Amino acid sequence: MAKISIAKCRQCRREGEKLFLKGDRCYTSKCAIVRRNYKPGVHGLKQGAGRMSGYGLQLREKQKAKRTYGVLERQFRGYFEKAKAAKGKTGELMLTMLERRLDNIIYRSGLASSRSQARQLVSHAHVLLNGTSVNIPSIQVESGDVIAVKTTKTDSIYWKELSKQTSTPREVPMWLTVDRSTLTITVNQLPSAELVHSELQMNLIIELYSL
Q1: Is 114 part of any domain?
Q2: Has residue 123 been placed in a domain?
Q3: Whole-number Å distance between alpha carbons of 14 and 63
Q4: Whole-number Å distance between alpha carbons of 181 and 174
Q5: For the whole model, what pTM was predicted?
Q6: Rounded to the nearest 10 degrees, what angle do helices 202-209 and 90-99 cross at?
Q7: Which of 92, 103, 141, 209 has its CA 20 to 30 A from that of 158?
């Protein structure tokens, strides 16, 4: 399976902002953006902000989105092609597809501290989707779907500790319902651009792919 080999903290530093790729560490003083808020590499400190070209802005926004959701170029481009072929605004449709990924749903629900951890939980077959075991993080969920942790996995220390917690470190979106005692997630409705509240400028990504 292909994977992103660049260290997570270097990715955040390259984009100049927190992408929350390291889970709980991102909320502490150990965060790379807090400790070394400049671009990685030997010339990182010497590189000024400068004025970025239109293409540069589009490229950086694409890289930021790919790194945020942990998606490689081929798959990311595939989301664009599907969104372009569907009815509606391409940027909003593309964002919705990224949000509907199973690994993202588990992250948004607070059952994982990062998307990479959520991806690992799915890949290691810890979850059921509508009662069926799945191990593909990119599966697109539908309205009414129910995600649950396998009963054979709930004896692990990770899930035992998580089920005892009554609150999550971040707000659970209104389009999801989470029961931490039973470790289940219900998709109330499909996420829209208004519900996601993303800071990604999807229009720049669409412009880049439309060149």
Answers
A1: yes
A2: yes
A3: 10
A4: 19
A5: 0.84
A6: 110
A7: 141
How far is Cα 38 from Cα 16, in angstroms, rounded to an integer? 7
The CA-based diameter of the chain, rounded to the nearest angstrom, is: 54
- 71-81: pLDDT as tens digits: 999 999 999 99
Domain count across the chain: 2
Range of weakest confidence among 35-49, 141-155, 160-174, 183-197: 35-49
Nearest Cα neighbor of 105 from 10, 184, 12 is: 184
The token duo for 48 is: 């000024």
| pLDDT tens track for 119-152 | 999 999 999 999 999 999 999 999 999 999 999 9
Question: What is the layout of strands, in order, in the sheet containing 176-179?
Answer: 132-133, 127-129, 146-149, 184-187, 176-179
Determine which helix (DSSP H) or strand (DSSP E) holds 84, and give its type and residue range.
helix 73-85
- Structural domain containing residue 153: 101-187
Per the structure block, which two tokens stand in for 131?
A: 């009662």
Q: Which of 33, 55, 37, 32 is nearest to 47 (CA)?
A: 37
